[in-house]
Specification:
It contains 10 helices and 18 strands. It is of the alpha+beta class and 449 residues long. The chain folds into 2 domains: 389 residues, no CATH class; 29 residues, no CATH class. A hairpin with a 5-residue loop joins β3 and β4. α1 packs parallel to α2, α5 runs antiparallel to α6 and α7 packs parallel to α10. The longest helix is centred in the N-terminal third of the chain and has 27 residues.
C-alpha cells in the first residue's frame, strides 16, 4: 500500500433493506466508421479501410445491487482506450450518472480491425492531415456513443438475476515462448496461458436471458486485412446473439498481451475461434452456475509505475537521422517534447480496479497486460475470479519483472511507439500486485499472501 501514489478510490457497498435483488440493464451503439479511415494495430498497412465484415459495437452492462449501488461495464470493438479519452468518458459518467471511476470499467476487445483512436500509437500510421482529422472526428463520435450506451443501460435497469461460471477454450498460445513459424500440429507448447472463459449470465424476472458477459485472454489478431471486423471476439458475440435471440453478448479482453490465436491470418480461422469461444460459453451455461448475491463493492487503486533512465537526445537524433519508418516518427515526437522544454516522462499512473459481485472477484488491469498478471490475480483472489486487461487506459505493454529482464517486444522494444522513453523498471510487478491487493481489500475481499 505504501507504493500507491494516489488515494484509493473505494466504494464498498453492502446488502440492505433498500431492495431485494439485482437490477440490470444493457444497451449498445454501432461504432462502425461511416467513412473509410485508417485501421488500428498494424504498422504494415499501407491504406485505409475498404469495407466491412461485420459491424463494430460498443456495449454496456449496468448492474445495481439491493442497496442501490451501481456499476457499469463498457465493452468495445476498438484497440484500446487511451487515457485522454477514458478520462473524458469517466468524468462524464461521474457528472451525468453520479458514478465515480471505481464503478465504471472501460474494456476494449483489442481488435486490430477497428478504427485508429486519437491519442494512442499515432506514430505508427502514415497519416496525412486529412486522415488525422478523420481520426479526431471519429474519436469524438466514439466518446459520445460510449456515454450514450452507458446512460441507456443505466436507464433500462430492471429486476435481474446474476450467475457466474468459467468455461475453457484453448486456442490462445504464449507467443513469447512459442515461435509462430515453428508451431506444428504436434507442438509441445511452452509458457503461461489463461484458457478460462469467464461467463456472467444476466436473466430477467421472467427467467429470460438478457445479457451474457464473457471474456478470454488472447490477442484479437486473427485478421490483418482492410475490413472492419471484431475479429474472433466479434464472431463469438454474433454467434451467441444468433443462438439466443434478444440477448446482448459482451466480450471483454483478458490479460492477453503475450498470447496469440495460432494459427491465424484467415477469415475462416477467425470464425472458427469465434465459434469455439461461443461454444465454451454455451458449455458454461449448460452446467449449474453460481448465483451471485445482490451485493456490489468497487474499489480502484492507482500506482505510479517507474521507467528506467530516458533515452538521450543523442540517441533520438540518431534514430531520426537513420530510420525511415515509425521509429523515426516516435523519435521526432520525443525530440519535439525536449525542444519545447518538457522533460521526457519518468513514470506513468497505472489504475487497477476490483469489483466484488456477491462473492465473485472481478479485476480490471490497464494496459496491454501480460497473462502472468491473470495468474497472479487468481492465485491471490481465487481461480474463479474474472480478470480483465486492456481496461481504462492502454499506455503500453505491461510486463512482469522477468519479461523486463528478458527484453523483447513486450519487455522493451515496443515502448517507444507508445511514447515511453525507456523500459519499465523491474519493480513494476511488485507495484502492480501491491495496487491489486489494496483494491481487493478496498472492495471487501481477503486476498491471499
Amino acid at each position: 500500500m505504501g507504493m500507491l501514489t494516489a488515494s484509493l478510490l473505494a466504494a464498498v457497498m453492502t446488502l440492505s433493506a433498500a431492495g431485494d435483488g439485482w437490477r440490470a440493464g444493457v444497451a449498445r451503439e454501432d461504432i462502425t466508421p461511416a467513412e473509410s479511415m485508417w485501421l488500428a494495430g498494424y504498422a504494415a498497412r499501407t491504406r485505409p479501410a475498404e469495407g466491412t465484415i461485420h459491424p463494430l459495437w460498443v456495449k454496456a452492462l449496468a448492474v445495481e445491487d439491493a442497496a442501490g449501488n451501481r456499476g457499469l461495464i463498457i465493452t468495445s470493438d476498438i484497440l484500446g482506450f487511451p487515457k485522454s479519452l477514458s478520462d473524458r468518458i469517466l468524468a462524464r459518467f461521474e457528472k451525468e450518472a453520479s458514478l465515480d471511476a471505481a464503478r465504471v470499467i472501460l474494456n476494449s476487445s483489442h481488435t486490430h480491425s477497428g478504427p485508429v483512436v486519437d491519442g494512442s500509437l499515432m506514430c505508427i500510421y502514415p497519416l496525412d492531415d486529412t486522415e488525422r482529422e478523420k481520426i479526431r472526428r471519429n474519436t469524438a463520435l466514439l466518446e459520445e456513443k460510449v456515454v450514450s450506451a452507458g446512460l441507456a443501460a443505466l436507464a433500462s435497469l430492471a429486476p435481474a438475476r446474476l450467475e457466474a461460471a468459467n468455461g475453457v477454450a484453448r486456442f490462445a498460445v504464449n507467443r513469447r515462448n512459442n515461435k509462430e513459424a515453428e508451431i506444428l500440429a504436434t507442438h509441445d507448447f511452452n509458457g503461461p496461458v489463461d484458457h478460462a472463459v469467464p461467463v456472467l449470465r444476466v436473466t430477467d424476472a421472467d427467467g429470460a436471458v438478457r445479457a451474457l458477459l464473457f471474456g478470454y485472454a488472447c490477442h484479437n489478431t486473427v485478421l490483418d486485412g482492410l475490413k472492419w471486423c471484431g475479429d474472433y471476439a466479434g464472431f463469438a458475440q454474433a454467434a451467441l446473439e444468433e443462438a439466443h435471440p434478444g440477448v446482448t453478448a459482451l466480450f471483454f479482453q483478458g490479460c492477453g498481451a503475450n498470447q496469440n490465436p495460432l494459427p491465424r491470418r484467415t477469415l475462416s480461422l477467425a470464425k472458427k475461434y469465434g465459434a469455439e469461444l461461443a461454444g465454451a460459453v454455451e458449455c458454461a451455461l449448460a452446467e449449474p452456475m453460481t448465483p451471485l448475491e445482490p451485493s456490489l463493492a468497487a474499489a480502484r487503486s492507482e500506482v505510479e509505475l517507474l521507467l528506467e533512465t530516458p533515452i538521450s537526445r543523442g540517441k533520438l537524433e540518431g534514430i531520426r537521422d537513420t530510420d525511415k519508418g515509425y521509429m523515426r516518427q516516435a523519435a521526432l515526437e520525443m525530440l519535439a517534447e525536449l525542444d519545447a522544454g518538457r522533460p521526457l516522462r519518468v513514470s506513468y499512473p497505472f489504475p487497477v480496479q476490483v469489483w466484488r459481485l456477491g462473492g465473485l472477484p472481478l479485476v480490471a488491469f490497464a494496459g496491454e497486460t501480460v497473462v502472468d498478471y491473470a495468474v497472479h490475480a487468481k492465485a491471490m483472489l481465487g481461480p474463479e475470479a474474472f480478470v480483465m486487461g486492456y481496461s481504462n487506459d492502454v499506455m503500453s505493454y505491461i510486463p512482469t519483472a522477468a519479461i523486463v529482464r528478458e527484453g523483447g517486444y513486450e519487455g522493451d522494444s515496443s515502448q517507444m511507439i507508445y511514447g515511453m522513453p525507456a523500459k519499465w523498471r523491474e519493480d513494476i510487478e511488485e507495484r502492480i500486485l501491491g495496487a491489486l491487493r489494496g483494491a481487493a481489500e478496498g472492495a471487501g475481499l481477503s486476498p491471499k499472501e
